[in-house]
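Reviewer comment 2.1 asked that we show a complete input and output for one of the modelled complexes. We chose the pyridoxal-5'-phosphate case, as it is the one discussed in the main text.
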Amino acid sequence: MSARHPLPAARHPIAARLLGDPAAVAGVIERFGSPIHVVFPQVMAENAAALTAVLDRHEVPHEIFYAHKVNASTRFLAQACAAGLGVDVASAAELDRALAAGFAPDRIEATGPKSPALIERIAALGVTANADDLWELDRLAAVAPRGSSVPVLLRLSGFASPLVPLSRFGIDLADVDAALETVRRARGLELRGVAFHLDTADPTARVDALTESMTVVAAAYGKGLRPSVVDIGGGFRQRFVDDPEPFQRYSQALATAAPEELVWPGYDLAAPTAHKYGNHRPATDVLERFLTAEIERRPVAEVLRECMLTLWLEPGKALVDHAGITLASVLYRKRAAGRDLVVVDLSRNQVTPADQEVLVDPVLVNGTGDRPGEGVFLAGRLCLESDLISRRKVFLESEPRSGDVLAFVNTAAYQMDLSASSAGGHPPPPKVAAFLEGERFTFVPDDIHGS
Ligand SMILES: Cc1ncc(COP(=O)(O)O)c(C=O)c1O
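Response of the prediction step:
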């Protein structure tokens, strides 16, 4: 018998409580069907409070904008609004939802590439435009009502530091002078600040980007502009495991054992994204390390305070870390390609972000089957060979049987919506928000599906 390599997922106490109550899980499936995404707005509130506490402790003036793209849930939007956060929208539809959720335009910023129609709405509403390109700035300048002051952030790119990952987004530092001139000459724009977004937890990379961004702030002042914000985007990490050890052992096994033991034939586990699933440090650590890192021997927090800059953050995954799970019924199991395969009432794209392999095991809710064997592969229901929910062998706590419920833990960040399709006539799973009140959960339908 080959070795088992379970990758146990960390579970938030609220998720653990639901998963420890098979009758409640069965009730959810009975009422809302399988598959179903369950979101926990209370966990989001906790995550927001934890990030805020770090910023407060370092006395950094700040605003947190929830990156709505991470999950289409309207319940998360409502929770972010109630918690006093702002919101980062990346499309006209997200802007509509943010307004409907009660965010005032001055609590909204628009990031990412924008259509002319969206630019017009941003200008008319006075939403903060986080400009991706000179073209956007020109259009904004053209449509901003004369005499208004539509707030603008310049999203910067092309940093000199080799630690900052290259990006297709933002205005290259080489073009920054032109961007500042456009804002200066425009009749209806106001430079609120500069911005970047790095998809890395490396504090040194973020500090390098900040240092280069501050030179743009200085250049703006030189032109008579008065920026007051540095927006460092999102990219704070999720905490997938309590203990990194099993992940390390698994990685070693992948490198040394015959990979066909652990991975479905024809697949390789993408190394660049794999490392993130071994993370056991919370996003608050990433933020703490950034604020205490030094620029010319002074902590970032102190530098920001002295320069009277307000720090903006746009966390997505850090705010919804552990704030959702996905439940799906086991249809049947079979032998295929010489392996044990469990077919699940779910499609890979409905629980997998951008086709990344998710490297934590699902949980079998109240599994009463035999003691677990050598692990199983999970397949979806589409007529695609590639519709494998796990391209790697997963290790469950007992052998899954038809009608059992599998819970995919910590799926609220991008996993539910980023790649979800209706292929094969299977619409993206509906969402339901679960609220723990005392000893009991109440479940409220969440009406937006997909991004
Ligand atoms: C501009 C911008 N801000 C914030 C985010 C949120 O990032 P994360 O979910 O990693 O915090 C993204 C994600 O793509 C982004 O593009």
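The chain has a mean pLDDT of 95. We note this here for comparison with the apo prediction described in Section 3.2.
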